[in-house]
Amino acid sequence: MRRKLAAGNWKMNGLSADLGELDALAGAASGPDTEILICPPATLIATASARAKGTGLLIGAQDCHTNASGAHTGDISAAQLRDAGASAVILGHSERREAHEESSEIVRAKARAALEAGLAAIVCLGESLAQREAQNTLDIIGGQLAGSIPDSATGQNLVIAYEPIWAIGTGKVPTLAQIGEVHDFLRARLERRFGAGVGRSVRLLYGGSVKPGNASEIFTVSNVDGALVGGASLKAADFLPIIEALETA
Ligand code: 13P
For residue 207, which atom of ligand 1 is closest to its CA? Predict the structure, then answer.
């Protein structure tokens, strides 16, 4: 059985004063079936981890470098994130693929670095609106999946997040059928590449305008094991109902 995962991506939001939001989430993080992960900006990982210690609330990061150490001014290695208390790292988010021109090859190298440092990799995939309208969604997703995932991935160290670019921060959400089509496709591709055991154990998250009002129906879709939430993860009052919807799904 795959454990459900409610993951929050704070992106470039949050100061020390916002860490109080974690306390309410920590209280909710004791259920055996659902993991709760918050990925704050790098500046808050160490203090967030200290605050969440012993509660079951997991803390993650939003990016890492491909190398374990070295002359890379301003970058952060996977080992450093782990040292700061992170247990996972988001990789290949569309905001990084676009703004930092990260190719799937770079994402795979980062994922490899993350796994070697003992972090779980949450690898993001997603099509643009133009690609969906041209009916290229599965080709794009299949290519990103093949290119971004290292061979050493397992159900323990890999999570995939399907985030259609046009749904991020827009309030637009794909139909349940569209989400289901992509998630079933991802599951089939993972089983084909890694075998049924590993392929069935990798968790698949949906991300893009997940809110308290739409979470329950999204979690009814087959092969949706949780969500990667941006805006609605910043406040516990918004994220808690999403967590509850996942727990009761
Ligand atoms: P929103 O939930 O704000 O649409 O962001 C989704 C996202 O990009 C999570 O990584």
Answer: 6
Class of residue 181 by CB neighbours under 10 A (exposed 0-12, middle 13-18, buried 19+):
middle
Active site residue 163: yes
Largest distance between two CA atoms of the chain: 48
Phi-psi category of residue 29: left, alpha or beta, with phi > 0 → left and psi -120 to 50 → alpha = alpha
Pocket of ligand 1 (CB under 6 A): 9, 93, 163, 168-169, 207-210, 228-232
**Cα torsion at 190, 141, 213, 168 (round to 10°)?**
140
| Cα separation, 39 vs 242, whole angstroms | 16
Query: What are the domain boundaries of the chain?
Result: 4-248
For residue 89, the model assigns a pLDDT of 98
3-state SS of 68-83 is CCCCCCCCCCHHHHHH
Element (H, E) at 87: none
> What is the model's pLDDT at position 95?
98
List pLDDT tens digits, range 36-78. Answer: 999 999 999 999 999 999 999 999 999 999 999 999 999 999 9
Residues of the chain with pLDDT under 70: 30
Q: In sequence order, what E strands does 116-163 have?
A: 120-125, 158-162
For the domain covering 4-248, report its CATH number: 3.20.20.70
- Catalytic annotation, pick one of 21, 102, 127, 163: 163
Do 207 and 230 meet the contact criterion of CB atoms below 8 Å apart?
yes
